[in-house]
């Protein structure tokens, strides 16, 4: 049973890494090529590119992290605490920008598309780029404590591991450290989640108000503004659904630290959580007209190569 869990988790993680690298790499490449061509990049493309790059880093660092975490390697990790520290802190930084850039994207959609006459909203709408920048800077308030606490826990674990030479003792210390890290991750993940949820609810309210206004004015219910609202709402809903999977996977990991034999279950939950940075890239491609058109062009090119019988076709 344990071997089945390990094998299943590794397969899931490998698929997510492949999908995530293709999707996020595609987003970064298309936006980079567009920037080279036009010598400028829109605000939305800047957010998408930064998000794609952070997720590429996250997927690879998570792959390194989880493959070096099985109990059989704990003793080796104990002897290379510097490497462990670099891996864990890099993971925290990438994970932080992964969720906060995605949440900033929800804020961007809300301010750009929603329609309210409130003076505060209009002030923020005209300065949407600054709002996103300020949001990311403010999020650093959550990043630095995570890094400091992670350093503290790693120091404590290495010190205790040196005092206790038994394998079981090292595992127990590792479980205690991991529980604290996961609890902190869960707390920090809740903030951008509620930020995005608020943006979604306000977008839906704006859509409802605009739809009622169109009906009252006897205008078509499918004008460009309503279509933009619906598109943005769908994108943010997809983001929150995937974010919920990530949130639940982290929450379920807390139940995997009581018994050491549950480590493979925790690994499976961890692998399931990586569906967020990998699959969400596909949602972003489908929801962006430029990226969607570019992906269709690539598919048409691949289809042509296949029909033409070129050896480059897989």
Q: Flag low-confidence runs.
A: 70-74
Q: Write down the overall mean pLDDT.
A: 80
Could you say which overall geometry the principal axes of the C-alpha atoms support?
globular
Order of helices and strands: HHHHHHHHHHH
The amount of beta strand, in percent, is under 5%
The CA-CA distance between the termini, in Å, is: 35 Å
Radius of gyration: 22 Å
Total helical segments: 11
Secondary-structure class: mainly alpha
- Tell me the total number of β-strands: 0
Relative helix content: over 70%
Q: Largest beta sheet, briefly? A: none
InterPro entries: TAS2R
Subcellular location: Membrane
GO molecular function: bitter taste receptor activity; G protein-coupled receptor activity
Keywords: G-protein coupled receptor, Glycoprotein, Membrane, Receptor, Sensory transduction, Taste, Transducer, Transmembrane, Transmembrane helix
Summarize the structure in words.
- Keywords: G-protein coupled receptor, Glycoprotein, Membrane, Receptor, Sensory transduction, Taste, Transducer, Transmembrane, Transmembrane helix.
- One of its GO terms (molecular function) is bitter taste receptor activity.
- This is Taste receptor type 2.
- It is found in: Membrane.
- The protein is mainly alpha-helical and 314 residues long.
- Helices cover 85% and strands 0% of the residues.
- The chain has 11 helices and no strands.
- Helix 2 (43-67) packs antiparallel against helix 10 (275-287).
- The longest helix is centred in the middle third of the chain and has 50 residues, at 167-216.
- The two termini are 35 Å apart.
